Amino acid sequence: MRATWRKVALGCALTKKQQRWWFTVVPRAVASTGIVKVRRRIQRVAVDVKPWMWLPLPTRHGWRVTVRLLEGRIPADYSQAAERLAHAWGVHAVRVSSPRPGRIVLAVTIRDPLVRLDTLPASGELLKVIVGKLETGGPWTIDFRAVPHWLNAGATQSGKSNLANALIVGLAPQPVALVGFDLKGGVEFAPYAPRLSALATNRAESVALLGDLVALMLDRMGLCRAGGARNIWQLPAALRPVPVVVLVDELAELYLMADKSEKDEIAKTSTACCGSPNSGERSASTCSCAGSGSAPTLAPVLPRCGLSARGGSAIGSTTPKPRP
Ligand SMILES: Nc1ncnc2c1ncn2[C@@H]1O[C@H](COP(=O)(O)OP(=O)(O)OP(=O)(O)O)[C@@H](O)[C@H]1O
Ligand SMILES: [Mg+2]
After folding, report:
1. Based on C-alpha coordinates, what's the Rg of the chain?
2. How many angstroms separate the Cα of 106 from the Cα of each of 15, 78, 99, 113, 186?
3. Which of the two ends of the chain, N or C, has the fewest CB atoms closer than 10 A to its terminal CB?
4. Which atom of ligand 1 is nearest to the CA of 250?
């Protein structure tokens, strides 16, 4: 790979012209015999310089190599050339990351690691779930302690509920309380009802359950105040209540209004939904909400929601288009 790097970098337009002292052969006069006399000279000429490449390190699905960026180059140049590099090396994919300025890491996968998905390993840590595999073959982990609130938006049939199912399966063996809001009439979460601490399947039930959750949150904040702690993780283990994970499927349904009589109910839902993520973090109430990204009903709510992490689901989509 290093032997062909100059050729590959040149073909993928990753080289740069630089003036170098070069040993050249300059033609001079043509002799009567027809032989061209040449003169050897060292002179400054513009040559294509390749970026410096470290030794490739083998990984489970291919190899990884660090490259030093040439002056004026940015990691995006390599991201754009990633497909060209993959074809030049005859591998499945090349992914680009930049751990520090001036360096990029090319992660090369020889075969598609997502062709075969065996059972996922269980995560040993509280509120940490391995929900799938990344394109690099590494585990896709959702850590509710690092990022407590998630919004997963995506088109119909893009895998939103599948992710919610994976979260329930991963969290079920852990000492956490699971609360489900399944606004699709319960079809997604009903099979998990024995493990769930509470399940709401329509808006009336959701409003009541949200009220209970807000009361629980206030209760826990009182507990923290009394114990002189800033959040429940600072409380002694004996006093610490179990974390609550709230999973919402079809978030948009909470805000759909058939007539004006439902306005009050929606306002109550909205207040509870927006308030819970904002203060829930300290009382160990985390949540993951799934909703169809195209639903216009979500638009007025999202800017006020404290859902810090946002993801998108897309199955079988073509190359993603750059966002404006
Ligand atoms: N990661 C995945 N890889 C392959 N297929 C998947 C994946 N996730 C979901 N699917 C499949 O895609 C289909 C739709 O999944 P899912 O029901 O989770 O989508 P959704 O976004 O919740 O759809 P809806 O908006 O209708 O609720 C299902 O048949 C499911 O088996
Ligand atoms: Mg769904």
Report:
1. 29
2. 16, 9, 11, 16, 44
3. C
4. 27
Residues 105-115 have pLDDT tens digits of 999 999 888 88
- Ligand 1 touching residue 161 (CB < 6 A): yes
Which of 131, 133, 162 maximizes ligand 1 atoms within 8 Å of its Cβ, making it the mutation to test the pocket? 162
> Nearest residue CA, atom 4 of ligand 1?
315
Q: Which ligand is nearest to the CA of 165?
A: 1
Judge if the beta carbon of residue 162 lies within 6 A of ligand 1.
Answer: yes
What number does the ligand 1 atom closest to the CA of 158 have?
Answer: 21
Closest C-alpha residue for ligand 1 atom 29:
157
> Domains in the chain, ordered, with CATH?
5-109 (3.30.980), 128-313 (3.40.50.300)
159 Cβ inside 6 Å of ligand 1? yes
Average the pLDDT over each of 211-220, 232-241, 293-302, 308-317 and give the range with the smallest value: 293-302
pLDDT of residue 304 exceeding 70, the answer is no
Ligand 1: atom nearest CA of 165 is 18
> Which pTM does this prediction carry?
0.73
How do residues 22-70 score in pLDDT, each as one tens digit? 888 887 777 777 788 888 888 898 889 999 999 999 998 899 999 999 9
Instruction: Report pLDDT digits (tens) over 217-247.
Output: 889 889 889 988 888 888 898 888 999 999 9
Report CA torsion sign: 225, 226, 227, 232. negative
Which residue spans within the chain are E strands per DSSP? 16-30, 36-49, 57-59, 62-68, 93-97, 103-109, 128-133, 139-143, 149-154, 177-182, 198-200, 244-249, 285-292, 309-313
Percent of the chain with pLDDT over 90: 35
Q: How far apart are alpha carbons 199 and 212 in whole angstroms?
A: 12
Joined together, the tokens standing for residue 86 give 């993959």
| Beta carbon of 64 within 6 Å of any ligand 1 atom | no
